[in-house]
Amino acid sequence: MANTTVYFATNRVAQGPTTDWRSFGADIVSPMDPRLVTYAAAFVEGTDLLVEGSGTITAISHAQPGGFDAGVTQDILGSGKNLLVFIHGFANSFLNAIIRAAFNREWFAASGIAAADTTVIAFTWPSLGKLIAAPPHLLADDYKRDQTQAGRSGFHIASFFANLQPLLTQIRGQGRRVFLLAHSMGNFALQAAVEGWFMHGQPPAILFDEVFLAAGDERFDSFELPMEARLGRLAELTPRISIYYSVRDVALYLSFAVNLVARLGHEGPRHKADVTRYPPARYRMPNCADVDDYNMVIPPDASHQYYRRSRKVRADIAAAMGNDPNLPGGLIRL
Predict the structure, then answer these.
(1) Can you list the domains of the chain with their CATH numbers?
(2) Taking the model in full, what pTM does it have?
């Protein structure tokens, strides 16, 4: 079992002391005030890669609004590790989001590739944290509510990126690499952040060495819509984007039923075979539908979590983190 520090920012309203993780619920702070975003460090104990949902938050320290404490920033800079920025998906409470970030850090570190042993920073937006509801229409209602909150979080995530930018520049100046991992509805939040970044006058900038979009609950034409909408300008913030998708992803069938638009994480981008639109050197699109090295039915959303359940997928992500020159680009099948 591992003990992990998860640095985090959140636009969840704190209903109590910011040193108590129970304070962070499912309400969102003022939509247009980045000074209300809380930054802190959470200490997670007992992460076990063999136990779903393992880990406990034992403490939160250096909590303050608007940016990381100077000491926290120095801790991140002094870690000597690459940096992993994580945006969670649907049905994650604050506790879920933080222990999931800790799990991801330990999961990739366990690959044995040094570059995948990272320092992790999570952005946790105000999801309800509910996965199962009955009757079914209540699950759809919770889904729609989470989707709305993810979209409303775009401004805060964009400001979070801007806040991190000087730190990311220093890390990259030390010869280290920076990764962004967005899972599930975190991709929906990310598209709102990319729009917000450019809408508020931020210029193109290399924030991340690679962006991993895992099981993306976002429109499959997100990179292709007119007027530079949604994820259309993500490539201006990173030199390479890896899009992991699987038609066997059960959770995204619910998303399609609600949105009536195919999902990025289900079938990949709309014109994924167009190498002019998606140059293989810039876009990697691993098809994970045939990955079978994990239990796909227990728990019920297991097929939506292959990025942290399949060793084959982990090996691919870790190789990308290591900037393996032999790593294939374009359409590949794991």
Answers:
(1) 70-91+107-333 (3.40.50)
(2) 0.97
